[in-house]
Amino acid sequence: MSTVGTAGCLGDDSPATDDFPEGVQFDTDWPTYAHDDANTAFLREGEAVSDPIVEYEADFGMPLAEPAAIGAQAYTTNDPLQIVDVAGGEVVAETLGDSWVTPAVLDGSLYTPTQTVQRPTEMLVYDADSGSEVRSIELPDSPTTAPAFSNQRRTMFVGLTDERICAVDLDSGEVRWTRDLFGAVRNPLAVNLGLVFVVTEGQRLYCLGTDGSGYWQVSLKTANPVAPVVGDERVYVAGWDRIAALEKRNGSAVWEDDRGVHERLAFDGERLYCSKGDLRALDTATGEEQWSYSPANSAPTVAGDTVYVGTDEGELVALNRGGTAPLEGRERWAVPLGDYVGHSLAATDKRVFCPVTREDGLMSLTVVADESIAGPNVSGTTAAAGGGDA
Length: 390
What we know:
Layout: E1 2-4, E2 42-43, E3 52-57, E4 68-70, E5 73-75, E6 81-85, E7 90-95, E8 104-106, E9 109-112, E10 122-127, E11 133-138, E12 148-149, E13 155-160, E14 164-169, E15 175-180, E16 190-192, E17 195-199, E18 204-209, E19 214-219, E20 229-230, E21 234-239, E22 242-247, E23 253-257, E24 266-267, E25 271-275, E26 277-283, E27 289-296, E28 301-303, E29 306-310, E30 315-320, E31 331-336, E32 340-341, E33 346-348, E34 351-357, E35 363-370, E36 384-385
Parallel strand pairs: 2-28
Antiparallel strand pairs: 1-23, 3-35, 4-5, 5-6, 6-7, 8-9, 9-10, 10-11, 12-13, 13-14, 14-15, 16-17, 17-18, 18-19, 20-21, 21-22, 22-23, 24-25, 25-26, 26-27, 28-29, 29-30, 30-31, 31-36, 32-34, 33-34, 34-35
């Protein structure tokens, strides 16, 4: 159930219909968790898969965690971290990584924390193509997140194990500031246009300036919070039994929904996509449900006009994201991949990178591509047609 409030609505301003954040820098590929530093999970200019085929099935194990991806190259959330050429069907390199943190790629460099006891307080930086180490950045404590980057790409922001975050100059590697928070920082940070949003296990949301200034903080009023999503006027938070849109300027609630989520959100400016047994598309201005799809087990991932979601029946499903059409007109195709698909997916043009539990119990990576670009080592598994475009 959604409730709409008026907090934070000053003057004659009404909530924006399209709240997509200006300043988002990543336009292509899936270089970090949830695609970009605002955590939208929306490949806005992306081309969706229309004629799907399973292009690649890895023979290594990995956690069911969202990878990063550039073109046909995947970067696993794993230790060791695998750099995989999915079109060529080979692992290009293995490096130190983290089984809990999706790596980040920026300007040809791959950033990842590491779980090794020899280098616990370093952010490691590799060449994103070869996997060779190019530098390391010493941090005040062990990192718990991949870096989120300022819009100008001069500063990275990282969560630390001692209930702090820090800002680091990308060129020099010097720590610019640290800030103490209440509760551990486990979820990815959200950064856009001079603001840093941090969710903590103390069930708090902090709004900080990129210079370390503290603007406001509010209670999340829910357990198991996921990463925040930054819009143009609002910031969106969610956990087990609450989804809320908050005024970006002061944290006041614009609307709330008591259904909650169990995976990260996705956001295309007009709709907030939320998964907890079914996938719901909520109006970002009012919180009203525009459409739903069931079953949906994974977090949603959006590319162009399509929403991808995994089911607990082991299928990857592609849905038309627009309009308010009924269920039978929304599903475009479905591909069986195993016993389970999720927890969250990555997408590049005409590819979807899926953590999967296979029928033999192996947790690994499966990539679905459009037949027009698939590499030579495809498995031949294709889609069952859905109900067509709405």
